[in-house]
């Protein structure tokens, strides 16, 4: 029997925000890997939140706002602070003196500001359509986190973060992963968590698989979404 209230979905949404805040705390303390794991856990929670929202038919009202606020914490601020903590180096000079530091600040700013714009657009009308308008912010966070884990070149990671930020505010359609595709996405996230958690010689291979799968979504997703009428 369905509950009259969507309190269960709201509690899951708050859990997403809690995990995002916890990720930020660990990142500030210098535990970048655990911060990454928590961001990925946040993606799983966000997926569960979507399932509950559809179950309770919570497609409008305060639930949409609450979800976007939690997503801002977990998928905008946490990845931004992660890149800043990993790459900004005062020993090289300020962002006005060093190109790498300047690029780090630019990427971090874009992740947050464009993420907020992306979610504001979703609140306005994005939740009404079958497809996303622009790259969904959890997917963007996944690519940023896994790029920071897999790739050794700081400049490449920051350029990827900037491109992801631009895709989030683009008008390119991306499919909402439900049913079987949603299950596959969940498995991919679990593989990413496993790879980040187990620090051995094979971990990087799991993380690389997740990054490749996420990039495939970025490239193939718009072609798949074009089959549906929507944004």
Structure in words:
With 231 residues, the protein is mainly α. It has a single domain, classed as Up-down Bundle (Four Helix Bundle (Hemerythrin (Met), subunit A)), CATH 1.20.120. 73% of the residues lie in helices and 3% in strands. The chain has 8 helices and 2 strands. The protein has helices at residues 7-28, 32-55, 62-87, 99-124, 137-150, 154-168, 179-197, 203-225; strands spanning 131-133, 173-175. A two-stranded antiparallel sheet has the order 1-2. It is globular and about 50 Å long. The mean pLDDT is 88.
Main sheet characteristics: 2 strands, antiparallel
Number of helices: 8
- Counting copies of identical and different chains, the oligomeric state is single chain
| Number of individual domains | 1
Query: What structural class should be given to the helix and strand makeup?
Result: mainly alpha
Helix content: over 70%
Uncertain segments: none
CATH structural fold name:
Four Helix Bundle (Hemerythrin (Met), subunit A)
Shape: globular
Mean pLDDT over the full residue set: 88
Identify the CATH architecture. Up-down Bundle
CATH class: Mainly Alpha
- The Cα radius of gyration reads 17 Å
Strand content: under 5%
**Total count of strands:** 2
Order of helices and strands: HHHHEHHEHH
What strand order characterises the main sheet?
1-2
State the end-to-end CA separation: 33 Å
């Amino acid at each position: 029997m369905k509950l009259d209230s969507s309190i269960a979905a709201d509690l899951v949404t708050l859990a997403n925000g809690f995990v995002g805040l916890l990720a930020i705390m660990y990142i500030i303390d210098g535990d970048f890997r655990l911060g990454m794991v928590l961001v990925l856990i946040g993606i799983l929670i966000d997926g569960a939140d979507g399932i509950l929202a559809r179950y309770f038919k919570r497609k409008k009202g305060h639930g949409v706002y609450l979800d976007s606020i939690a997503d801002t914490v977990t998928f905008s601020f946490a990845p931004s602070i992660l890149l800043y903590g990993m790459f900004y180096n005062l020993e090289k000079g300020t962002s006005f003196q060093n190109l790498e530091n300047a690029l780090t600040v630019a990427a971090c700013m874009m992740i947050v500001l464009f993420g907020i714009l992306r979610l504001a657009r979703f609140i306005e009308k994005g939740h009404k359509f079958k497809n996303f308008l622009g790259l969904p912010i959890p997917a963007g966070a996944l690519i940023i986190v896994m790029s920071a884990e897999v790739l050794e070149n700081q400049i490449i990671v920051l350029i990827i973060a900037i491109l992801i930020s631009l895709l989030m505010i683009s008008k390119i359609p991306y499919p909402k992963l439900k049913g079987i595709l949603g299950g596959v996405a969940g498995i991919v996230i679990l593989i990413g968590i496993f790879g980040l958690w187990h620090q051995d010689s094979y971990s990087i291979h799991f993380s690389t698989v997740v990054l490749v799968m996420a990039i495939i979504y970025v490239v193939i997703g718009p072609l798949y979404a074009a089959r549906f009428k929507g944004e």
